[in-house]
Amino acid sequence: MENQERFTIRRAKVDDLAEVAKVHVAGFKGYFMTKLGEDIIEDYYKAYLEEDDLFVVACDNEKDGKIVGFYMGYYAGTKALSIFENRNRWKLIRRLAWLCLKFDKDAITRCWARVCGVFNKKKPSPIRFKSDIGMLSSTVLDEYRGKGIMTELINASVKIVKEKYPNEPKTYHGTTHLFNKKMRSYYIKNGYTEDCIIGESVRYVKTF
Predict the structure, then answer these.
(1) Of 21, 70, 111, 185, which residue has the fewest beta carbons closer than 10 angstroms?
(2) What's the CA gap between 5 and 60, in Å, rounded?
(3) Residue 82 and residue 166: Cα distance in Å, rounded?
């Protein structure tokens, strides 16, 4: 990573989440989760932090430890999403309804998917190893990109899993947008293989 003394990669804390939510908004402009508001984003990340604790942040030491990027992963079988949805049920319904009234395409698509899901329930994918991990959300502020920060964030997350499950095989699942050439190149260069394409996203996997 460029200028390693300037940046610190560390595990996230609950106190970081308000700042993480702001980094999310800056990194995911126009995305569905961003439209729901910073309070929803903050509690979404809190659920995964408390349930999986596979969350690392990058801090700029020259700016009083300002958070400039983050990586959030999850373990196979996580209950974080259910926990988040249950404790924010009515807030989510109100905001989804408001977005639908504004004819927001993302909100309408998700509402329709939920309705269809009631009638077309699918069995969950089998869990091979509890040490299997997936990347759920990650970004670095624009002005800090190109410095190797994302690579260090991913490496830090892999280290956490290795320490937690030292004797189990581990499979990393990373997803990125089809048009994100930099991230797709990162995965290929670091030994990941393309697994499948889901909508506008492509998933890569690596066993280590």
Answers:
(1) 185
(2) 9
(3) 28
Residues in the chain: 208
Enter the pTM of the model: 0.83
AA letter at 101: L
Sign of CA dihedral 137, 143, 147, 149: negative
CA-CA distance, 138 to 140, in Å (whole number)? 7
Question: Could you report the per-residue pLDDT of 71-120, keeping only the tens digit for each?
Answer: 999 988 889 989 999 999 999 889 888 988 888 887 778 776 665 654 45
Q: Quick count: other Cβ atoms within 10 Å of Cβ 93?
A: 11
Sign of CA dihedral 62, 38, 72, 205: negative
Strand runs (DSSP E) across 86-151, as ranges?
133-140
User: What is the 3 state secondary structure string of 153-205?
Assistant: HHHHHHHHHHHHCCCCCCEEEEEEECCCHHHHHHHHHCCCEEEEEECCEEEEE
Task: Collect all residues with Cβ–Cβ distance below 8 Å to 104 and sequence separation of at least 6.
Answer: 35
* CB proximity list for 185: less than 8 A, separation 6 or greater: none
Encoded tokens for 177: 């947008």
pLDDT in tens, 140-190: 999 999 899 998 998 999 899 888 888 877 788 888 878 778 788 888 988
CA distances from 147 to 52, 70, 72, 74, 205 (A): 27, 14, 19, 25, 24
